[in-house]
Amino acid sequence: MESGVFPRPEVVAELEKYIRVDLVTDRNTDQSRKNAEYLVERFQDATLPQYVILDSDGKVLDRIIGYTRDIDAFVRFLRR
After folding, report:
1. How many domains does the chain have?
2. What's 37's domain CATH number?
3. Count of Cβ atoms closer than 10 Å to residue 37 Cβ
4. Structural domain of 29
5. What pTM, to 2 d.p., does this model score?
6. Which of 20, 57, 59, 78 has a CB 3.0–4.6 Å from the CB of 14, allowing a cystine?
């Protein structure tokens, strides 16, 4: 997604509306393991990639799991 979807102008325009946080879970580090545990605790799933839109109170507004090449679908997700 980082190389095929995020650089697209229409995605860039939508992502600029958000504070983007990368939660790295696939490294052999204590922090990565803690991040993976957080995913399971918070969302009952550690599938990667996983994109979650939260409001300022931490409430889940929308979530998409898995890789997609469908730029329009990802932009719709960001606009919801």
Report:
1. 1
2. 3.40.30.10
3. 12
4. 9-79
5. 0.84
6. 78
pLDDT, position 80: 87
d(CA 39, CA 34): 9
Within a domain: 1 = no
Residue 4 lies in a domain: no
29 within a domain of the structure (yes/no):
yes
Q: Where are the alpha helices (DSSP H) in the chain?
A: 9-15, 30-43, 71-79
Residue 3 forms part of a structural domain = no
d(CA 11, CA 13): 5
Consecutive 10-residue averages of pLDDT for the chain (80 residues): 94 96 93 95 92 95 93 95
Q: How far apart are CA 62 and CA 54, in angstroms?
A: 7
Instruction: Give the C-alpha separation, 20 to 12, whole Å.
Output: 11
Q: Using alpha carbons, list the distances in angstroms from residue 23 to 48, 51, 52, 63.
A: 10, 10, 11, 14
